[in-house]
Amino acid sequence: MKKNYWRMVFRTIKESFSRFLAIFLITALGVGFLVGLLCTSPDIRTSVDGYYDAHNFFDLDIKGTMGLTEADTQAMEERPEIERVTAVYQKDVLADNPDGQNQVARLHAADYTENVDEMVNSPELLEGRFPQKAGECVLIKTPSFSGNFLVGDMIRLQPEALKTESLRW
User: Fold this and answer.
1) 111 DSSP assignment
2) Contact, 88 vs 108, CB < 8 A?
């Protein structure tokens, strides 16, 4: 019985070899594609985790519409499960690019006097240096804010962006 079965299988393959080969290749392609997809996810997670670790990416982002006080920051630092706290001011402002056009920019004010490598969300510097005195900034180029800025260019913010009462930590 087995001998006849296998003889029939081989005869069927021989009679329609092109159909058999096409089905075999389609199946092999599907298996290869699935294996590639299943392997990609852990590799991407490992890569992203390494990047986040290298730049001290935050685990928890606390925001307040009315701002946070120094007491709020100290309360977070006192928690035993929290390793590091970095206070950052963030505001959307209008800025003039070198072409003289207004663009919306997101202003992040952070203390760069501490060791940048130990900051939470430490930026990766591609060109120039970190701010060392008042009036200097780091520009993060993104698709939405990609004016023709060069190192040393002047970025003018609208006056209402820098009101002292709005710069609360």
Assistant:
1) -
2) yes
Answer yes or no: are the C-beta atoms of 158 and 93 closer than 8 Å.
yes
Contacts (Cβ under 8 Å, ≥6 apart) of 56: 84, 117, 118, 119, 120, 121, 122
Q: Which residue has the tokens 């990766």?
A: 124
φ and ψ at residue 31, rounded to 5 degrees: -65, -45
Query: Between the CA of residue 158 and those of 98, 125, 162, what are the distances in Å?
Result: 14, 26, 8
* CB contact set of 127 (below 8 Å; sequence gap of 6+): 151
Query: How does pLDDT run across 26-77, given as a tens digit for each residue?
Result: 999 999 999 998 989 889 999 999 988 888 888 888 887 777 888 888 888 8
Element (H, E) at 53: helix 17-54
The answer to whether 90 touches 108, Cβ cutoff 8 Å, is yes
- Contact by Cβ (8 Å): 131, 124: no
Name the E strands within 97-162. 102-109, 156-157
Query: Over the stretch 79-113, which tens digit does the pLDDT of each residue have?
Result: 998 888 877 777 778 877 777 777 777 777 776 66
> Which residues, other chains included, contact 167 with Cβ-Cβ below 8 Å and sequence gap of 6+?
89, 109
